[in-house]
């Protein structure tokens, strides 16, 4: 199996509801489980070409009375499946497309990007600086030698959040053509 292959997990990825449930159980120190009423919606909308962003809605069962558990959250799943979709839309083929050899090589980069993002969030959470806003993180799974298909990040779902491109470098440093991604809520 590879990151560019469909699977039977959330939104046809390798990450399963059980993976997410177990991670949240550890985070919130609970034995509550996802009930039958659960839903996963792809909210990626072509925002990015490597992850699939899923809005997950669950009803928790066997929840402790004093426990507050999120019923809606986002899961950023590191996968290469969107690259295949992008290739179809742009009509990339041949050496310009995302063939199996290229996707295998990009797999290493995909895993490294995901692990660096997780490490960045771990630093943000550790220092929790009041002037550096970031999304509340509920849990994550890094890629490693024993896990090369299930990298994910579980975060608070921010309604109407959008990624926009701005020319921050051009504005501040007078470099032409540089862009930076920023979250705007």
UniProtKB/TrEMBL annotation:
PANTHER family: CHK DOMAIN-CONTAINING PROTEIN-RELATED, UNCHARACTERIZED NUCLEAR HORMONE RECEPTOR-RELATED. The keyword Kinase applies. Keywords: Kinase, Transferase. GO terms for molecular function: kinase activity. Coiled coil: none annotated. This is Protein kinase domain-containing protein.
